[in-house]
């Protein structure tokens, strides 16, 4: 009987140990400690895990995110172009500077060629309006910027267009880009007069002599006094530009400082107007500035 009880105790102890061992194995499986539960990314779960470039919730390639959750997006280098002015308001015989900024993005670098024109309402180039760059090609650093200066030159002769659109085109290995600015040009021409040693300093034609310009009939001509003393303007063609102060006694006899003597050009096509400061002078005779009268457009 003692042996029987001793055997039962041993069997019970062995079974208890076996149950404890089994319970420990089950706990290990349930606790996630096995090889199947590693901490790597779970591609296709819609969450961008560490090590994934993307995760669109599936493991299908060709939709922008591959079956291995790497990006399939192709980035194309590009440029953009902008102007420091979106509107230009000016008059005849002027030079107007516009700063052009070219910006690279998405890995762009390299040369960008610039061209420009002013277009009328029918998108045709305005004749005589010129656009010149200080550098027609700019080199853009990687995803950086480069600038150039475009100079819009308006001639003295009115071309019949008062409004246009400045268009700057940028060509490179990237897709072409453009930038625009409106241009309004008044049909008027201003001669600015300063005093040097109490004498009028006449506008020069490229530094070689007094200005010789073509002006269309109907253009407003302005003689602006930028000096401190009063001026009086005379001409040798009273039909085109009358002597100041001598039109029926109704004309302004003098041009005060910071004001202008204004007349609309008349006369005969092909004629000339030789004008000068009657007071305080000088009258350079044949060396005075001259307007050549042309037909209105």
Q: Are there runs of 5+ residues with pLDDT below 50, and where?
A: 1-15, 17-37
Structural class: mainly beta
What is the CATH T-level topology of the largest domain?
Immunoglobulin-like
End-to-end separation: 138 Å
Record field, number of beta strands: 17
Order of helices and strands: HEEEEEEEEEEEEEEEEE
- Major sheet summary line: 5 strands, mixed
CATH-level-2 architecture of the largest domain? Sandwich
**Helical proportion, percent range:** under 10%
Compute the average pLDDT: 86
Q: Per the principal axes of the C-alpha atoms, what is the gross shape?
A: elongated
Strand content is 35-45%
Number of helices: 1
Radius of gyration over alpha carbons?
Answer: 42 Å
CATH class of the largest domain: Mainly Beta
How do the strands line up in the largest sheet? 2-9-8-4-6
The named CATH superfamily of the largest domain: Immunoglobulins
Number of domains: 3
What does this structure look like?
This protein is mainly beta. The chain folds into 3 domains: 2-31; 78-186, Sandwich (Immunoglobulin-like), CATH 2.60.40; 188-294, Sandwich (Immunoglobulin-like), CATH 2.60.40.420. Helices cover 10% and strands 39% of the residues. The chain has one helix spanning 2-30, and strands spanning 78-83, 87-91, 94-105, 110-119, 130-133, 137-140, 145-154, 163-171, 177-186, 188-196, 199-201, 212-216, 220-225, 232-235, 260-264, 272-279, 290-294. The strands form 4 sheets. A 5-stranded mixed beta sheet has the order 2-9-8-4-6, with no helix packed on it. A 4-stranded antiparallel beta sheet has the order 1-3-7-5, with no helix packed on it. The longest helix is centred in the first third of the chain and has 29 residues, at 2-30. 23% of the residues are buried. Mean pLDDT is 86; it is low at 1-15 and 17-37.
């Amino acid at each position: 009987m003692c042996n029987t009880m001793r055997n039962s105790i041993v069997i019970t102890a062995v079974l208890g140990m076996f149950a404890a061992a089994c319970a420990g194995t089950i706990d290990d499986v349930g606790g996630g400690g096995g090889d199947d539960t590693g901490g790597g990314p779970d591609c296709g779960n819609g969450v961008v895990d560490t090590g994934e470039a993307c995760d669109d919730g599936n493991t299908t390639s060709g939709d922008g995110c591959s079956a291995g959750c790497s990006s399939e997006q192709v980035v194309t280098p590009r440029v953009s172009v902008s102007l420091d002015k979106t509107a230009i308001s000016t008059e005849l015989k002027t030079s107007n500077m516009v700063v052009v900024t070219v910006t690279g993005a998405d890995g762009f670098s390299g040369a960008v060629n610039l061209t420009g024109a002013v277009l009328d309402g029918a998108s045709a180039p305005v004749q005589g309006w010129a656009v010149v760059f200080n550098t027609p090609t700019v080199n853009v650093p990687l995803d950086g910027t480069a600038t150039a200066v475009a100079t819009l030159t308006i001639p003295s002769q009115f071309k019949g267009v008062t409004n246009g659109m400045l268009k700057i085109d940028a060509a490179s290995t990237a897709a072409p880009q453009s930038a625009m600015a409106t241009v309004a040009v008044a049909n008027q021409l201003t001669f600015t007069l300063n005093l040097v040693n109490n004498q009028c300093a006449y506008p020069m034609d490229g530094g070689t002599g007094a200005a010789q310009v073509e002006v269309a009939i109907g253009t407003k001509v302005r003689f602006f006094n930028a000096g401190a003393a009063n001026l009086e303007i005379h001409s040798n063609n009273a039909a085109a530009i009358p002597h100041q102060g001598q039109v029926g006694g109704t004309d302004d006899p003098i041009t005060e400082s910071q004001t202008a003597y204004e007349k609309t050009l008349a006369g005969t096509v092909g004629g000339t107007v030789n004008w000068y400061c009657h007071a305080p002078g000088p009258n350079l005779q044949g060396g005075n500035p001259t307007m050549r009268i042309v037909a209105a457009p």
